[in-house]
Amino acid sequence: MTKCLCCQKESSDGRRPSREHLLPTWLHELVEMSGVQLERFSVHESGMETLIARHGLNNYVSRKVCNECNNGWMSQLEDEVKPLLTCLVSADRTASSLSGQERNTIARWAYKTSFMLLSGQTEIAAPWEKFSRWCATGRLTPGSAVIFALSEPSLPRAFFYSLDEDYFHGRAYGVVNVRVSLCINSFLLVVLIPSDEIERQPGAPVVPNSCVTFELLWPQDRGCAVLPLRPSTNPPKLPREWLRFIVNQVGAGICRRSNPS
User: Fold this and answer.
1) Structural domains counted in the chain
2) What residue numbers bound the domain in which 77 lies?
3) pLDDT tens, 82-139?
4) CA–CA dist 55, 94 (Å, integer)
């Protein structure tokens, strides 16, 4: 670490690097299985997967955060979210039961965790200036992100995540959102981080005759545009294939603004 991702202070200023667990240690016991390791894949546009690494959750850490941030505000946020997240991943509560303040807490944690997951890869150009500004201004809300949650008891007892980019009419037009999806047992979070400062309109599907219901955690001051969900002719079978399918059903489009008269 030469500079902390959170406070932006240099290690030469006495800021020591810390082992920040990308999935907090108090959640490990809920998802760890004997003899099973975390596998990280790179997925090509064609769908081909390449295994990057295989290791335990205890070794899935970032050394790009200083000890003061890790054991300070980040630890406090983990303490704040722990009772909520434990109930959600254990299916004792659902996302629809969350109050406005609870949604804010989960959304802030999801935003922080998304950037920590992004720090462990090199393929996606994360908008780090947004994270630095968020850290510097108090971390009271998840900023300009759009965050969805899904409570689904039928999900496998496991930990999955995916990192992707949303493009506007193809790659030639650039990235609109960085998409981070985090699934822990019965609870799925989808975090859409805008690539610019234009506000986004959240969109979620209508799923006829289904119990799958996305909840909009953030922003809380706008309704969610409801979209029809096209049926899949080839439904995914593997858990990680299902994850990639379902997280792409929600979106955050650029809001169109009329020119002033």
Assistant:
1) 1
2) 11-253
3) 999 999 998 899 999 999 999 999 999 999 999 998 987 878 888 999 999 999 989 9
4) 31
